[in-house]
């Protein structure tokens, strides 16, 4: 670490240290800088170094170290106030507030000392001529902390009544404190009203809106404004995450997870900050953190996950049960220390109440990725069925009747009902028919493994005197064989049951339902043959399947009556015909048949069977360009599936609907469905596959709404699971691209550049290089905004080479202009900047000469005009204040010449170029005024006014241009 040789070097070092991340390393550097300042023998240098040290302590986990440098500063002020400049005198009085709050946060500081310090603060502020606003705010903090509500309300009123002056906290911090009190008093709506200007970005500071977003989470949940709460969590946690000093706000986000069914994410948050368990420099925020750790651990314990491994204090492994006990004991011991100091039980009461909270939302999907754990799949515990006095056999007839009712009406969970019958029938003597039905439904439950049971059921049905149902069971066995790849066996087995059922039906030896069942089984086997046939499919195979399907319709159509099973056969046959039409390439016919099938299921009172076909219809409608029908079908599928939809299917439907709505520009509703898709994909265990794609889409929809922080959080959570193999490298590039855009909007330019460069590195391997060029250009912009000028120039050069290869003059010219501006700020200086800007003019003029059509000519003309305009701006700015007068004069003359060129070029665009022309005209006018040419400047101002004659005030650009032209005329006339 190099020594500090003079005061300026010290100030530069402190400024650099201020930009470092919060934490012990920055604090240690501040301590070293104080030691260096003391060697300079300059009192103000020591004062500034102490102030710097105090500031970094305050914004860290070592807040307890603030008191020593402040005591020294105060002693220096009392002994030699003349050593303080105006800024340091102001800063000394400013941090009085930090000392009051800092003492309150340390339970070892007696309350009497805090009250004495409050009086000292009031006395010194009065002597310095400051308002009592900051003093009353500090008094409010003391009173609310110890639970003296009456005093707190008086101080609160006095705080708001006092005049704001230079000692008052910033608007953002004041509004946060006022809103916090309203929320504490149960006035959540009023709290959110007070926080609104901070949450909406009207007021901000180093720790706002960070804390307001965190404080708003539980009030929003209590008001059932869950969508806002979710948005505030995603946006706010992103702000809090890198700031070590914000343990209290971090705790609010952990609490939010515990109260919304996001226990897995809560554990991830704890794992990110192990030091928060043990940092002792700020006991009050440690108490807040331990309190919500207890809340989260006891929530897990209540869900039966007491032995779940969880992140905790370093040095040992923890289970949820162990950490709950440890954190509760630590929190209550710490709260007790505060209460003994304060002489009340208020802090302990609040801690116990916070730890005892119940969830406010059963499950609030966040859209972000959570590590798959037992927490993520917690189910509501099913209460045990109490023992029955009656023997199980007495229930069997009831269970059997219910199972038959569910089967006859094709209700969901019929198979489960038959499983309950089977359990109740163990050890009970049953007749043959009952045993046949039980085995038949057990086979249905087993799926691919049910062949032998179907055949056993067929034997028992025959023994029971029901040959039709026996043949139907045999046909079910044949279909299962077809499903498991034994298609030839299945085809060999369908002929005999088919022939026999038709004969039986003709002789009234079986019913319509059994006959339809056998015909449906045969048609299903034929459909499997169609699906497994090599491309192109033999028309004879398709014809056989179609004939078998139409035979079902001929048998059943118009004869179903109240029998929902027969109605279902007809509906399924329509769906089979739809599939065959789709395979034959008749998409419109397929869509119509799927619509009929879905409608038939709904009409039969079986809407859950319609879901598959509505989803298929949506895909076909989208293919046909009928987005309205696709949207309708997907909404119907979600509605008809209702609670019967399994998680994977629900995720797919929400995702499809999100994509359709997004294509129509309805990004808000699309985001809602993408969020649901991500949630249900996670529930289905498909987070890394379908869930990652849903998060990718969700991030894009949030970006379209300008919700940059939320979008960034979601996109960052999607990236670890997105892979070229599963999702395609296009999805990876697009996610990085979107994320770069979000980070750029959030001012995180270095990180934006990194994302854009990563995306460009993938895109450079693509045959078409436009995306590669665009990403390289965007990365260069971010590097420049991050102050990495050399890296930016290299990236712009790379982008320019790509634009040239693509024949994209606009991209090439803009990269050259950007490099010119970078050169002006670098060691290369003005000469290199002029060379690059001249090259941009040359490239644009050459392309204009070879423009292939009028549209291209107009676009290149505008580009040339903008390049001349920027050249003029660059030349004007290249004239340094310490240059010789002749040099400055020459630079301004050259700048005016370029501006005049820009005016002339834009004039060639007529009305389309009016705004650009008048902007250049005004710039030229100001240059003329600087060069002492008032007549020229006035003429240019009047030309602008003339350009907007007859243009109404509703044109904002025209209004601004006229105002600036009038201002220029006033300046010229005054001169």
From TrEMBL:
Looking up InterPro entries in the UniProt record yields:
TPR-like_helical_dom_sf (IPR011990)
Highest taxon of source: Bacteria
In its UniProt entry, what is this protein called? Tetratricopeptide repeat protein
């Amino acid at each position: 670490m190099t020594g500090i040789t003079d005061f300026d070097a010290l100030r530069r070092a402190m400024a650099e240290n201020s930009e470092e991340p919060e934490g012990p390393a920055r604090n240690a550097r501040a301590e070293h800088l104080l030691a260096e300042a003391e060697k300079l023998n300059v009192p103000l240098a020591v004062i500034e170094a102490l102030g710097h040290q105090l500031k970094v302590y305050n914004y860290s986990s070592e807040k307890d170290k603030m008191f020593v440098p402040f005591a020294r500063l105060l002693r220096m002020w009392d002994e030699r106030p003349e050593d303080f400049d105006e800024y340091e005198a102001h800063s000394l009085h400013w941090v009085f507030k930090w000392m009051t709050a800092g003492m309150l946060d340390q339970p070892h500081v007696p309350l009497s000392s805090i009250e004495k310090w409050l009086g000292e603060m009031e006395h010194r502020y009065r002597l310095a001529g400051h308002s009592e606003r900051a003093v009353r705010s500090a008094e409010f903090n003391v009173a609310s902390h110890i639970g003296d509500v009456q005093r707190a309300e008086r101080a609160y009123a006095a705080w708001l009544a006092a005049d704001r002056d230079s000692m008052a906290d910033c608007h953002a911090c004041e509004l946060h404190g006022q809103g916090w009190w309203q929320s504490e008093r149960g006035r959540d709506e009023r709290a959110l009203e007070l926080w609104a200007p901070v949450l909406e970005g009207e007021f901000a500071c180093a720790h706002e809106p960070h804390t307001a977003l965190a404080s708003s989470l539980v009030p929003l949940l209590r008001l059932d404004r869950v969508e806002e709460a979710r948005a505030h969590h995603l946006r706010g946690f992103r702000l809090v995450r890198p700031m070590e000093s914000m343990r209290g706000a971090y705790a609010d986000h952990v609490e939010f997870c515990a109260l919304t069914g996001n226990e897995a994410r809560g554990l991830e948050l704890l794992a990110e900050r192990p030091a928060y368990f043990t940092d002792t420099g700020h006991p009050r925020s440690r108490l807040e953190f331990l309190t919500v750790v207890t809340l989260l651990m006891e929530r897990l314990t209540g869900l039966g996950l007491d032995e779940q491994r969880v992140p905790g204090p370093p040095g040992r492994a923890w289970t949820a049960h162990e950490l709950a006990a440890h954190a509760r004991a630590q929190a209550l011991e710490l709260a007790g220390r505060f209460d003994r100091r304060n002489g009340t039980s208020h802090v302990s009461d609040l801690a116990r109440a916070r730890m005892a909270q119940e969830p406010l939302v059963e499950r609030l999907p966040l859209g972000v990725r959570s590590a798959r754990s037992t927490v993520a799949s917690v189910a509501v515990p099913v209460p045990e069925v109490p023992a029955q006095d009656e023997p199980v056999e007495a229930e069997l007839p009831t269970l059997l009747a219910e199972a038959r009712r569910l089967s006859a009406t094709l209700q969901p969970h019929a198979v489960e009902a038959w499983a309950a019958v089977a359990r109740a029938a163990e050890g009970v003597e049953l007749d043959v028919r009952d045993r046949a039905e039980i085995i038949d439904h057990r086979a249905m439950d087993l799926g691919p493994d049910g062949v032998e049971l179907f055949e056993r059921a067929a034997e028992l049905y025959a023994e029971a005197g029901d040959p039709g149902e026996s043949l139907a069971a045999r046909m079910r066995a044949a279909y299962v064989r077809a499903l498991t790849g034994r298609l030839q066996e299945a085809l060999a087995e369908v002929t005999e049951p088919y022939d026999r059922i038709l004969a039986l039906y003709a002789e009234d030896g079986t019913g319509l339902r059994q006959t339809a069942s056998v015909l449906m089984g045969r048609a299903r086997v034929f459909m499997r043959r169609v699906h497994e046939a090599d491309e192109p499919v033999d028309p004879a195979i398709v014809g056989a399947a179609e004939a078998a399907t139409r035979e079902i319709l001929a048998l059943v159509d118009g004869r179903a009556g109240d029998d929902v099973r027969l109605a279902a056969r007809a509906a399924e046959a329509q769906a089979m015909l739809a599939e065959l039409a789709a395979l034959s390439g008749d998409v419109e016919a397929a869509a119509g048949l799927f619509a009929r099938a879905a409608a038939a299921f709904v009409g039969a009172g079986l809407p859950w069977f319609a879901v598959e076909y509505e989803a298929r219809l949506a895909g076909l409608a989208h293919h046909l360009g009928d987005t309205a029908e696709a949207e309708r079908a997907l909404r119907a599928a979600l509605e008809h599936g209702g609670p019967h939809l399994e998680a994977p299917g629900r995720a797919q439907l929400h995702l499809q609907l999100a994509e359709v709505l997004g294509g129509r520009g309805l990004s808000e509703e699309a985001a809602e469905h993408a969020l649901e898709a991500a949630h249900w994909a996670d529930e289905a265990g498909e987070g890394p596959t379908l869930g990652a794609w849903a998060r990718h889409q969700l991030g894009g929809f949030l970006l379209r709404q300008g919700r940059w922080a939320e979008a960034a959080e979601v996109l960052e959570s999607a990236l670890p699971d997105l892979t070229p193999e599963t999702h395609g490298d296009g999805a990876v590039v697009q996610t990085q691209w979107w994320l770069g855009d979000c980070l750029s909007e959030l001012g995180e330019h270095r990180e934006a550049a990194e994302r854009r460069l990563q995306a460009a590195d993938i895109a450079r391997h693509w045959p078409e290089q436009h995306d590669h060029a665009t990403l390289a250009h965007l990365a260069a912009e971010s590097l420049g905004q991050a102050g990495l000028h050399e890296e930016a120039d290299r990236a712009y050069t790379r982008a320019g080479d790509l634009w040239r290869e693509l024949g994209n003059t606009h991209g090439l010219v803009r990269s050259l202009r950007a490099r010119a501006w970078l050169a002006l700020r670098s060691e290369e200086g003005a000469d290199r900047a002029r060379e690059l800007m001249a090259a941009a003019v040359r490239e644009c003029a050459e392309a204009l000469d070879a423009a292939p059509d009028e549209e291209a000519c107009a676009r290149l003309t505008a580009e040339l005009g903008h390049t001349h305009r920027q050249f003029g701006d660059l030349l004007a700015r290249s004239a340094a204040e310490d240059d010789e007068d002749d040099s400055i004069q020459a630079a301004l003359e050259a700048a005016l010449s370029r501006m005049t060129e820009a005016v002339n070029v834009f004039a060639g665009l007529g009305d389309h170029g009016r705004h650009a022309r008048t902007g250049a005209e005004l710039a030229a006018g100001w240059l003329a005024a600087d060069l002492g040419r008032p007549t020229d400047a006035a003429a240019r101002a009047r030309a602008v006014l003339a350009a907007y004659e007859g243009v109404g005030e509703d044109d904002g650009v025209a209004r601004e241009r006229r105002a600036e032209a009038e201002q220029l005329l006033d300046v010229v006339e005054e001169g």
